[in-house]
C-alpha cells in the first residue's frame, strides 16, 4: 500500500479518529469505529452537508426514513435482480475477486466497469492476469454476486420474513416522495435530502474506510418537471463542486470530473458524472451525480399501485417528476478531507510537525487551552469552562508547551490559547494559529469576539 496512506491510517488510529471495529475480539474484517475525534469530525461533516444541501437551499427539505423497507421496494427499484458484481474465484487458493477490479489493478487506465461478463473473462485470460494472492492464473467463470444484505423480520426465518438492509438511502425518499410533497406543500422543483446508514455486501471492501460493507450516505433527490428548461444537472454538479472546494477546502487539482460511458451506467441512470478524488492509493469515486429520469417513481407507481404523478396546476397537466441525485458516502468524503489535510513539516530544530489542516468548521476542537505551568491551572480551568459555552474546546495541562502544540496540530485544532506568568498581571493570553504558527497577545475580555471572528473567516 502507498507509504503515505499507511502513515495517514496509523496517524488516524493513534490519535483516536478511527479504531478497528470489534478490536478486542480480534476485529471484524473491514469494519471501523469512529473514536472521540472521528465521531466529532463526522458529525460536523454531516451537519455541514445538511446545512448546505437542505437547510440553506431554498428548494430543499429533509427526511429520515427506515433502513429496513418493505421488500417490494427493492423489487420495484430493480435492486433485487440488478444489484450485483461480477465475481471470479481462484481455483488454486480459493480466494474470491471482483473481475473488473482485478483488471483495473493491473491496468489502471482500463475502465473495466464498462465490459460485459464475457469481455471481462476474455480480458483476464488474454492479458495473463494472475491471482493477487497465490499468483496462479486459474480462475472460474464469472458469477454474479448479490450485494444486498439479508435478514429476517419477526420469529420466522423463511422467505415470507426475509427483509433487506437498504443499499442506498434514496429509495426511502422515493417511497415517501408523495407524503413529503403533500405535507410540505412543495411545488416543483424541489429536493429531499437524507443522511443515513446503507449496507452492501461488497466483495472487495478495503482501502481503509474507502469501501466498507456498512457506511453512511448523504443523498439528495431533486425533483423537477421534464419540461423545465433549467439545466438542473449542471446546477447540482456546480453546487457539489462549490461544497467540495469552498466549504471543505479540497483543491481542484486533487479531483477530476468523469462522465460515465453508456454501458457503465447503473440500471436507473441515463447520465452520471463522478467526482473522482486522487486518494493516496489511486483515483477513486468520491461523489456521484446521476440523472435518474422518472425511473424510480414510475417503478414505485407501478409496483405499489399508488398514483405518484404531480399535478402542474398552472398548465393543468399531470406527469411523473424527473430526478437529479447527488450522492456521497460520509466516510469516503471524510477520508478525502483527511488525506487533503494531512501534512508533515520539518521545523528549524529538525523536529517533525504533523498537522491536520482541517477547515476550522470541521476541526474536532476549535480551541485548546494550555496553562504554561501548574500555577496557571485554576485560571485555565475557569477560562476553559467559560469558552466551552461557545466553542468546541479542550484543555491540555501535561508536557512541555512545544509537545502540547504538536499534539493539537496533529488533531487539527486551529487555535491554542496559552496562559502564562504575565496573564495574572495583564489579563492577556497568547493565541497561536495552527497553520502559520503566528502568535498574538489578546485580552481575555476580547477573546470570545476575537475567536468568533477568526472561526468565521
Ligand atoms: N443512490 C445512488 C447510489 O447509491 P452509488 O454510486 O452506488 O450510488 C453513492 O453510491 C456514493 O456512496 C458513492 O459515490 C460513495 O461515495 C458512497 N459509497 C458507495 N458504496 C460505498 C461503500 N461500499 N463504502 C463506502 N462508501 C460507499
UniProtKB/TrEMBL annotation:
Q: Which residue range or ranges hold the Aminoacyl-transfer RNA synthetases class-II family profile domain?
A: 118-359
> Care to name a GO molecular-function term for this sequence?
ATP binding
Q: Which residues bind substrate?
A: 98, 168, 215-219, 325-329
Compartments (UniProt record) = Cytoplasm
Q: What is its EC number?
A: 6.1.1.14
Which CDD domains does the record match to this protein?
Answer: GlyRS-like_core
Q: Which reaction does it catalyse?
A: tRNA(Gly) + glycine + ATP = glycyl-tRNA(Gly) + AMP + diphosphate
- Its domain of life? Bacteria
Q: Where does ATP bind?
A: 200-202, 210-215, 285-286, 329-332
GO terms classed as biological process: diadenosine tetraphosphate biosynthetic process; glycyl-tRNA aminoacylation
Alphabetically list the UniProt keywords: Aminoacyl-tRNA synthetase, ATP-binding, Cytoplasm, Ligase, Nucleotide-binding, Protein biosynthesis
Pfam families given in the database record: HGTP_anticodon (PF03129), tRNA-synt_2b (PF00587)
This entry carries the following GO cellular component terms, namely: cytosol; extracellular exosome; microvesicle
Role played? Catalyzes the attachment of glycine to tRNA(Gly).
The entry assigns this protein to a family as follows: Belongs to the class-II aminoacyl-tRNA synthetase family.
| Record's subunit section | Homodimer.
Q: Which PANTHER family match?
A: DNA POLYMERASE SUBUNIT GAMMA-2, MITOCHONDRIAL (PTHR10745:SF8), GLYCYL-TRNA SYNTHETASE/DNA POLYMERASE SUBUNIT GAMMA-2 (PTHR10745)
The entry's protein name is Glycine--tRNA ligase
Q: What is the phylogenetic placement of the source species in the record?
A: Bacteria, Bacillati, Mycoplasmatota, Mollicutes, Entomoplasmatales
